[in-house]
Design brief:
By secondary structure, the protein is mainly beta. It has five helices and 23 strands. The radius of gyration is 21 Å and the shape is globular. The protein starts with 6 loop residues before the first helix and ends in a 22-residue tail after the last strand.
Length: about 375
């Protein structure tokens, strides 16, 4: 009977189901499995859930934190509400780390999370992980590694080419022969080297990255001047944008990190020695004059703080090297959230449930990892 129903109607029906039901529905028949796994349905379902989340003001935060007392790393989803309520989705079944049980979030885009296990710095073990459907892809080893080129610096970023709906990881390796840029494409299933016209910017290996307007952004530069570098995932071209004048000549780029707030580019500045933090927002993308100081906080010298994120209501999330705290920039009033974590191992990313990777087979890593059917 289902075979007689047009795909457009089936998409409308199935598109109203939650994720867990959809995963079971794939096992009903081949036609349902094919439809639910199709790119059209994945995009349709994501657009619908995003629209509903905006109407209901239901947004999620993916928070990674390391509990020193437990000596354990946690990935947790929280509702971006007044009290940061924990969301009912188990993330303990995350990708398996070959070497160390610690993973860094490289980026989050449309429900897909890029993780990296880079503690040894010999190579980059990368995963693309969809927590919603509990699936992940292990990326193949990049072309340039410690074994092939010896010690070198590198920078990475993650996002999606909106024109082709292709998720990509960008890797810049600074080797003796000059910088090399490689891109991993989910659709292509492998790495490819690209030729870049013009000079390739020097991005520090610890630099944060953020995806916005079809491009990945980092803070770049040296002692003479700092600026923002963007890499367009469609045109595969680098561009530069100026930082606020007060941030251009900070001696250490690691004091700056990039983020997105209400679809606008942000820069976090943290001076742990002075105990100061500030947040700047670019109201009009690409317009230097539109940089605005949203927030400044002074804990005094020795007050170790680090800004790690923003809630949709404008409250700032930061760590004091022991736990994650929220501060209302209007009061300012501190809220202790009961989420313990060291600043070097804590991060906050926005998250939306999605079905991306639903058509990908699970890698066989251990007996606990299996697909849903």
């Amino acid at each position: 009977m289902a075979d007689n129903i047009p795909n457009e109607v089936m998409m409308e029906i199935l598109g109203r189901l939650p994720v867990k039901t959809l995963l079971r529905a794939r096992c009903v028949c081949k036609s349902w499995c094919s439809l639910i796994s199709s790119d059209n349905f994945v995009t349709f379902w994501f657009n619908r859930i995003t629209h509903l989340n905006n109407i209901n003001n239901t947004h999620l935060l993916l928070i990674k934190h390391y509990n020193k007392r437990e000596e354990k790393e946690h990935f947790s989803l929280y509702l971006d509400d007044e009290s940061i309520t924990e969301y009912d989705l188990n993330l303990e079944d995350r990708p398996y780390a070959y070497i160390y049980p610690y993973l860094t979030i490289l980026g989050s885009c449309n429900g897909l999370v890029c993780l990296i296990d880079d503690m040894l710095s010999l190579t980059d073990l990368l995963y693309l992980w969809n927590p919603t459907i509990r699936k992940f892809v292990v990326l193949p080893e990049p072309r340039i590694t410690f074994r092939s080129h010896g010690a070198y610096d590198r920078a990475l970023g993650f996002g999606v080419d909106s024109a082709t709906n292709d998720y990509k990881v960008v890797r810049i390796a600074y080797v003796s022969g000059g910088p090399e840029v490689d891109i991993y494409s989910v659709q292509e299933g492998g790495w490819r080297n690209i030729s870049v016209s013009g000079p390739i910017p020097n991005i520090k290996c610890e630099a944060s990255n953020v995806y916005l307007n079809g491009a990945i952004h980092w803070v770049s530069g040296g002692y003479s001047r700092l600026f923002i570098v963007s890499f367009n995932l469609g045109t595969e071209v680098f561009s530069e944008m100026e930082l606020p004048s007060s941030l251009r000549y900070i001696r250490q780029s690691r004091r700056l990190s990039v983020a997105v707030f209400h679809d606008s580019l942000c820069v976090f500045h943290t001076d742990s020695w002075e105990g100061k933090s500030s947040i700047w927002l670019m109201k009009q993308y690409g317009v230097v004059e539109s940089w605005t100081n949203l927030f400044s906080l002074d804990f005094g010298r020795g007050g170790s703080v680090k800004v790690i994120g923003l809630k949709r209501n404008g409250e700032v999330l930061f760590t004091n090297n022991e736990e994650i705290i929220s501060v209302d920039i209007k009061s300012p009033k501190l809220k202790y959230l009961g989420i313990h974590g060291e600043d070097v191992a804590s991060s906050v990313n926005t998250y939306t449930e999605s079905l991306v990777l639903i058509d990908k087979p699970m890698p066989v890593l251990d007996e606990n990892n299996s697909s849903e059917c």
